[in-house]
Design a protein that fits this description.
CATH superfamily of the largest domain: Vaccinia Virus protein VP39
CATH topology of the largest domain: Rossmann fold
CATH class of the largest domain: Alpha Beta
CATH architecture of the largest domain: 3-Layer(aba) Sandwich
Number of helices: 12
Structural class: alpha/beta
């Protein structure tokens, strides 16, 4: 078989098994490419000549094995391969952290323009860093900023530390902190970023198997899904500089947040590459 044939075969198997996607891919074909290419050590820009070159038995078995594992375990592909791309950079992941997939990548990739003047951003705080992908990507996008990244799970911070080691150019500017939301110090930030848990607990319990492999504390947030967001909104104004802003990813909960917190005037960002629930509120938009 050739790599191309293996990808098409895996696509058919994934569709027949009714797998659920959403951890970096959103369809069976892209998932097949991700896994088969990983098993064969192929880059995503591989040539047609290589795609149509027959494989040896060991290569075929390696690709078929990873496809079988995905179907049998229903684990997200990123956990099987041990890596995922975010904002154009590759990060190490495992089941101690969420699989990176936030549409915040698009905003970071634009260096936060037009929502912020990057020249006026000196300090960033990321709340709930998990793998560290958002904090590290922000530091890469803005080479002059200092980034604090908090998480209350030491297991997650261990993964973030592994990723920080992959990007030595930002290590001096990124500080990982074990904390419940905000650092215990009184620093103020020009930008606070968070992709907090926002799934109502009953919805989280009924998620497809792929999502149940992820840390539940990083998804579920109380009966209304707003337990963590509520605390962030209460505390954020005091930790923002006067022109500062809070940038959050709350998925499909944007309208629920507008209803629950009318004293915070979020602007919900239209994204060119898909996704929803990316909102920004400047310090002046907090009116309580």
């Amino acid at each position: 078989m050739t790599p191309r044939e293996l990808v098409f075969d895996a696509t058919r198997q994934f569709a027949a098994a009714e797998l659920v996607f959403g951890h970096g891919t959103d369809n069976a074909y892209d998932e097949a490419v991700f896994l088969v290419f990983h098993a064969l050590g192929l880059p995503f820009d591989v040539s047609d000549e290589i795609l149509d070159r027959p494989l040896n038995e060991a290569q075929r078995l390696a690709a078929e094995s990873i496809v079988t594992e995905r179907i049998a375990t229903r684990r997200p592909a990123a956990y099987i391969t041990g890596h995922m791309w975010f904002a154009g950079h590759e990060f190490q992941v495992d089941d101690r952290v969420l699989v990176p997939r936030s549409p915040l990548a698009e905003v970071i990739g634009s260096a936060f323009a037009p929502w912020l003047d990057c020249n006026k951003v000196g300090r960033i705080l990321e709340i709930g860093t998990g793998s560290g992908c958002i904090a590290i990507a922000a530091a890469l996008a803005l080479p002059h900023v200092q980034v604090d990244a908090t998480d209350n799970a030491c297991d997650a911070l261990a993964v973030a530390e592994l990723n920080l080691a992959r990007f030595p150019e930002v290590r001096p500017r990124v500080r990982l902190i074990e904390a419940d939301l905000f650092p215990s110090t009184d620093e103020r930030y020009d930008l606070i970023i968070s992709n907090p848990p926002y799934v109502p607990s009953d919805v989280a319990a009924a998620l497809p198997p792929e999502y149940l492999h992820e840390p539940s504390v990083a998804l579920a947030a109380g009966p209304d899904g707003l337990a963590v967001v509520r605390r962030i909104l209460q505390l954020a104004p005091a930790r923002l500089t006067d022109p500062g802003a809070l940038l959050i990813d709350v998925g499909e909960m944007a309208s629920a947040i507008d209803r629950a917190f009318p004293s915070v005037n979020f602007t919900w960002i239209d994204l060119a590459f898909g996704g929803e629930g990316i909102g920004i509120a400047y310090k002046r938009d907090f009116t309580f």
